Amino acid sequence: MSFLVVLISVIPVRIAIAKIQAPQPQAILTLGSWLDREMFTAQFATKHPNLEIWVSSGTGPEFAQPIFRAFGIPDNRVHLDYRAVDTVTNFTTLIDDFKSRKIQHLYLITSEYHITRAKAIATLILGSQGIIFTPLTVPSHEPSESWFRILRDIFRSLLWIFTGRTGASLNSYF
Fold first, then answer.
1. How many structural domains is the chain composed of?
2. What separation in angstroms does the CA of 4 have from each of 39, 88, 124?
3. Is 7 part of any domain?
4. Which pTM value belongs to this model?
5. Which residues, in sequence order, are CB contacts of 91 under 8 Å at separation 6+?
6. Contact 142/117 with Cβ under 8 angstroms?
7. What is the pLDDT of residues 29-55, one digit of tens each?
8. Range of the domain at 146
9. Long-range CB contacts (< 8 A, 24+ apart) of 133-137?
10. Residue 174 lies in a domain
C-alpha cells in the first residue's frame, strides 16, 4: 500500500515541475467526436497561431479538415488521431506524441458536461508523465456526467499508470 501512495505522490511533483518549465500551453488537445468542439478549437486556434492542434477521435477527416481550413488553419498544424476509443484512451494514445515533441502544457478542450471526468483523467495520466493542462469548455446543455463514470475512469487511469493497460474493455460492462 505504501508503494502505491509513493507512486501516486510523484504526480503532484511532476505537475509542479511542468508548471515551472512550461507556464504557457504549448499545444491544443481537443477530445473529439463533436463538431462543436472542433469548431470551438478552430476558432480558438486562430488566436494561438503557433500552437499545434491535436484532435483525439473526433469527427472524420472529411468533416474535421474543412472546419480547420475554413478558419485558415493549415493542415500541417492539425493532427487528427483516431486511435482512442474512449476518454481514457484519448490521453493514453497521445502521450508518446506529446513526449516526443517535449510538450509539457496543453490546452484541453472538451464539452462543459464532460470536463470533470476529463480533468480527473488528465490529472492522473498527463500528470504522471509530467504534462499539465489548462481546461477550456465548450458550452453544452447536457447534464454533468455521473460520479460512477468519473470514478470508473479514475480507476482505469490508475490501472494504466501501473500496468500500461487502459481497461477499455471494461466500458462494455459499465
1. 1
2. 41, 20, 13
3. no
4. 0.92
5. 56, 121, 122, 125, 126, 157
6. no
7. 999 878 999 999 999 999 999 999 999
8. 16-167
9. 133/25, 133/29, 133/105, 133/106, 133/107, 133/108, 134/25, 134/105, 134/106, 134/107, 134/108, 135/107, 135/108, 135/109, 135/110, 136/40, 136/44, 136/107, 136/108, 136/109, 137/109, 137/110, 137/111, 137/112
10. no
Cell matching residue 58: 473526433
Residue 119: inside a domain, yes or no? yes
Q: Per the domain annotation, does 4 fall within a domain?
A: no
What CA–CA distance (Å, rounded) separates 148 from 94?
25
| CATH number of the domain where residue 111 is located | 3.40.50.620
Phi, psi of 93 (to 5 degrees): -75, -20
